[in-house]
Amino acid sequence: MGPNFRQEFQDAFNVSRETMERLDQYAVLLEKWNPAINLVSKSTISTLWQRHFHDSAQIIKLCDKENCHWVDLGSGGGFPALVLSILALEFKPDDRFTLVESDVRKAAFLQTVIRNLDLNAFVIVERIEKTPPLSADVLTARALASLANLLGYAHTHLGPKGVAIFPKGESYKKEIDEAVEVWNFDVEEFISKTNPTGAILKIGDIKRV
Fold it and tell me: Whole-structure pTM over 0.85, yes or no?
């Protein structure tokens, strides 16, 4: 028997049985839809609880504000936004989520999960560049673009005191070096629990150089 990633998730986040049941339902929908529209890499389905659920959920601990409007860009299969919105029902019930996804089939999947699990989330089916400013308290994006490009989106879509939270792989320091040529920003680095060579970047006060 390999590691029980589902149990590890429950232990790490101390979530209720109802939250685990919602995540189970999400996993079932993901496995059902994935062959048709490739929401996640097929090789990661067996490690879904660690690679996608745990990886996404750790972000919630970096947001200490109440009553937040989260905006997730290029949501794809729903990471991190749907995992965070499931956890929010238990821990941050006043938070709401806006997911921006231009692919119509992926957007349909996201809407199906939101409806089935009764999440406080809404999908905008549009390209990020064409989406009017969303005034986010927290902006997220996972495996979407370089940090310099993400900061451009954040500059448009964050509210005045908003923060951006971006999981990044092992080249994150190089991405920060490239981004500072175009942007001024404050950044905190948190080592990822699921990818020790990567980091989660929490960024605020973004201004053009």
Answer: yes
